[in-house]
Amino acid sequence: MNVSPLKIFDESILPAVLVIFAKILGSIFANYYFNLNWNLGEGLIFYSFPRIVYLDSNSLQIANSVSTLAVLFVLVFGFGFVLFRAHNFHDSHIHPKVSAGLHKRGLEELICDSYEIYHQAAIWLSLTWLVFLLAALQFSVGVLNGGIFAFSGVITLSLNALLFLDVKKEINVERELARQDVN
């Protein structure tokens, strides 16, 4: 099936909003919990939109680290949910008993096809790599804690590996179906 740009755009709205919201909430939490030195300044992109200006580099690093950690948690839960559905409710390799149980409980909407799963996974995968690359950049200029950068690397590689396992399972199912068609 072809990748639909409209489908990817549609699937990307909620994850992008959740990531942005996590970054903002993480910054607000860090500012008040750690009593950081900051002020509101004029925005660079949207001139009427205020931005947070930190008065010292330590405050910037703490706020950036906490907000990046919040984003990583959103990525783990969001991408994790997609991966959970991919491993357990993928229509190509769901166990018949699980499928019957979901239908009996009226939860058949949890079962999804490859088209839906891989569109969602592509969005979350892209966001995960974007956050990792931004974390690498922020770490390289000294505005992100090294532990948070390392954690972002572990999260990125782990989520990639879990997606790879489902793709591998899907390929094996397709090979088995192709073999059955030949026989």
From TrEMBL:
Transmembrane segment boundaries: 12-34, 62-84, 121-141, 147-165
Keywords: Membrane, Transmembrane, Transmembrane helix
Keyword Transmembrane helix belongs to the record: yes
Protein name: Uncharacterized protein
Organism of provenance: Candidatus Woykebacteria bacterium RBG_16_39_9b
